[in-house]
Amino acid sequence: MLRRKPTRLELKLDDIEEFESIRKDLETRKKQKEDVEVVGSSDGEGAIGLSSDPKSREQMINDRIGYKPQPKPNNRSSQFGSFEF
Prior knowledge:
Elements: H1 13-42, H2 45-49, H3 54-65, H4 76-80
Pathway: Protein modification; protein ubiquitination
Region (Disordered): 34-85
Family: Belongs to the CDC26 family.
């Protein structure tokens, strides 16, 4: 493997401005998200998260991550296809 000198990176004014704009955008999104969480917890949603029912907790987690489980069929033909015994 050939060695070469490190490439010098130049920091330009445009790069700094772009970074600042992205950082401000992320901060505003974070602040909006915090505001929504505060409003959600005042509506009683926070109490649901503390409930001891495992189904509701599991459902809340699935909703949060966007997982929509499909019910499993219980008949034999769906498990093994259309095999003849």
